[in-house]
Prior knowledge:
The protein has 4 helices and no strands. It is an all-alpha fold.
Amino acid sequence: xxxxxxxxxxxxxxxEAAFEKIYKLYFARVFHFAKIIVKNEDLASDVVQxxxxxxxxxxxxxxxxxxxxxxxxxxxxxxxxxxxxxxxRHKHILEKIVKSATLADRTxxxxxx
Length: 113
């Protein structure tokens, strides 16, 4: 536990080696958690990558007094849900486009007798 707190402190200071150690320490569990939510390995991989990029970009805001693991899993859950919502929106838009194209195709074709 103290090792993680030390790593988090080093991460906050911009230590890339500490970030890499944290990444290796948590990657498998975070990936598995994301995969449970999104049910797709590629999407889970994207989620994990985005979460760790956000951790790096916001490293100075990490509170070492709070559970880093809880923060990481909360970020992963939120990003995974966001990915699912985006996919749902894209699917809905695509369905509308296909429906419109199908209707337009039907109305533009002359009837065969």
